[in-house]
Amino acid sequence: MGTDKDTQCKYSPLADDNDPIIIRICTIEDLEGVIDVNEKELPEDYPYFFYKSILDSYPESFLVACNSEGTIIAYIMWRVEKTPSTNSLKLVNKGHLVSIAVSKNYQRRRIASTLLSNSMEKVRKYKINEFVLEVRVSNYIAINLYKKFNFFIQNIKERYYRDGENAYFMTCKI
Ligand SMILES: CC(C)(COP(=O)(O)OP(=O)(O)OC[C@H]1O[C@@H](n2cnc3c(N)ncnc32)[C@H](O)[C@@H]1OP(=O)(O)O)[C@@H](O)C(=O)NCCC(=O)NCCS
After folding, report:
1. Can you identify the CATH homologous superfamily of domain 4-173?
2. What pLDDT was estimated at residue 1?
3. Is the CB of 107 under 6 A from ligand 1?
4. Rounded to two decimals, what is the model's pTM?
5. Chain centroid, CA 83 distance in Å
6. Measured from the CB, is residue 42 less than 6 Å from ligand 1?
7. What does residue 78 show for φ and ψ, rounded to 5 degrees?
8. What is the pLDDT of residue 16?
9. Is the CB of 111 under 6 A from ligand 1?
């Protein structure tokens, strides 16, 4: 775990001191709030132990954003996988974006952008060669966001989601 300086930044997405947003590393006490945001904003939900295992294994890149009342209003979590490189059979470490979501009332304030840039910096410390993620082909908002971070569509994973929707598999080389 890093120092306060590493783990906590005060960030005002609206440049409005009445509504400051704190971005910091997730703690175990935050998990209920993370699950709450996930359940409201995404159709994919996970059991508590899944969040806990990501927090235990990759704590530095599991970030949350909180409002001035301390309520969790966004999160991002990553894991690291050793899989064949997209260009060769060589096994490489990849940073896999597991999930990101921002509560509806706080969207479009660059919170996701800040979470992504801060966490990608942390994931790089796991000596990865690329970042990867899946996103619903209909989720143009998230696709726009990822393209801004230099992700591009590598291929389509057919019927990736439980409801049968396809996913774009997006990658970002380092
Ligand atoms: C996708 C999501 C995380 C974006 O969060 P956000 O904090 O609103 O995003 P930001 O304000 O940082 O926006 C960054 C970029 O995303 C894109 N974007 C965000 N909202 C958008 C919208 N309503 N329409 C089109 N593009 C949008 C834009 O490219 C934007 O850059 P710009 O503001 O310079 O145009 C948020 O909409 C969300 O939580 N959605 C539900 C959960 C989800 O879909 N997660 C991704 C699963 S793969």
Report:
1. Gcn5-related N-acetyltransferase (GNAT) (3.40.630.30)
2. 38
3. yes
4. 0.93
5. 20
6. yes
7. -125, 160
8. 64
9. yes
